[in-house]
Write a structure and sequence with these properties.
The chain is an alpha+beta fold. Helix content is about 45%, strand content about 15%. Strands 4-3-5 form a three-stranded antiparallel β-sheet, covered by helices on one side. A hairpin with a 2-residue loop joins β3 and β4. The radius of gyration is 17 Å and the shape is globular. The relative contact order is 0.11.
Length: about 160
């Protein structure tokens, strides 16, 4: 079963390597396989994209989403990248100081909601970057580089 799970997450060819010899993305994939080995009823995932480059982050989030769909497995993902969360989850729960300040679909994350979660910031800039990212997806010749450094608990 373990080898089948390593194969499903795309790291079967790394099965003979020590964990410290794996890249960050490979380690995250192994973590997903380890969690699935336990046949959970709910997948709890903490910061699956921390310290990963944008491409690998998207690959990991896509993998999690696919596996959850295949297994009809609900997941709670603690992630602080707003744009990534908006792209890959169906529901966002925003907390500030342990209090619920938002519970809804990613499309409902307005600048006002983001201010309640994170505090004052130019959230319009985030939305403009997101619009440019969508445009770049539709026009792959253009490169878009985004940096998100604000933090809050989003699941």
């Amino acid at each position: 079963k373990a080898f089948a799970l390593l194969d499903r997450v795309g790291v079967l060819d790394q099965a003979d390597k020590r964990a410290d010899a794996l890249s960050g993305g490979q380690r995250q994939r192994v973590g997903v396989a380890r969690a699935l080995e336990q046949d959970p009823e709910l997948l709890l995932i903490d910061e699956p994209t921390a310290s990963l480059d944008p491409k690998t982050s998207r690959q990991i989030m896509r993998l999690i989403r696919e596996i959850c769909a295949e297994r009809s497995l609900p997941a709670i993902i603690n992630i602080h990248d707003v744009l990534l969360a908006q792209d890959f989850v169906d529901r966002i729960v925003g907390l500030r100081a342990g209090a619920l300040v938002f519970d809804g679909p990613p499309s409902a994350l307005s600048p006002e909601v983001l201010t309640r979660i994170y505090g004052e910031e130019d959230w319009g800039a985030l939305q403009r970057r997101q619009a440019r990212a969508i445009d770049a997806d539709e026009n792959p010749g253009e490169a878009v580089d985004m940096v998100i450094e604000r933090r809050a608990s989003l699941a």
